[in-house]
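Notes from hallway chat w/ T.B., transcribed later so I don't forget. T.B. wanted the structure written out for a chain they're using in a teaching module, and asked if we could keep both sequence and structure tokens in one place. Agreed to drop them here.
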Amino acid sequence: MIARLRRMFPDPFILILFATVCVASLLPASGSFGVAINALATAAIVVLFFLHGAKLSRDNLLQAVRHWRLHVTILALTFVAFPLLGLALSLALPRALSPELWEGVLFLCALPSTVQSSIAFTSIARGNVAATVASAAASNLLAIALTPLIIGFLTKAQATGISFSGIWNIVLQMLLPFVLGHLCRPWIGAWAARRKALLAITDRGTIVLAVYSAFSAAVIGRLWDQVPLGSLGLLILVCAVLLVAVLVSASYVARAAGFARADQISIVFCGSKKSLVSGVPMARVLFAGPHVGAAILPLMIFHQLQLIVCAWLARRYAAQTPIMEAALTERT
């Protein structure tokens, strides 16, 4: 039995994520405990970005910002390919889900990339972390204007504007710590470079806290009770198809365009994510009260799927990298 589980879940971190989902379903964080969990998750995000800022050299950061082909590719996957895939599914299978759930799926497809999990998975997979920071931040900033336009085009919803609070949180919790960490690099850069284990713990700890916090909110809000079990199963399947389609498309595009392996990893992980942090406040603005739950539900499901699948994928990339580096060394 244990051997079978190891074959199904080669990365123990996936089992940790499943255990986190179970704990959140049985013991969701609420009240003062929920406040403490949210504060802890925020602190983990701040530490994560501070350490990555301190670790990255100035030359690598400038090179990442100037890497316009990579950024355009990621943004095209996020705001063009993803919405078109969702629209194609909704047109091909209109009766598979209710109109409200399809609207939620299309809303999911119009959202920006995540920041913290894209960074964490790119780091675990040994990809271009600096480029991921730049692309994920640009994705969330552009989403202020692009997401309402895209969802308005796809669903003909009336977009009345997007709150800037989510963007301000991105600045305070992610971009500012990253900049401060980079400014402190002359004093702590060498220390951060030697503490790879600390960065790994921060990466994984941030993801675990995000899973627990997100699932706790779903359980407390009773989102899972708003749709029948059959519809929930079909919705999970639709989200899984979307995730696989985007991951395959991102990998193919990255290789076909001739990007280096580190850039390919950045494209795969940053181009395939959708942000729960940005999505929830946007849903409250774009959708009427009764429809907010249906709009958020696909995002909640997709969010969990992307964390679980990408945790396995990141470890797979990390395991393959030394082999490929050795092969390149032999050729040269």
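Follow-up for T.B.: Residues 67 and 131 are 7 Å apart (CA to CA). Might be a good example for the class.
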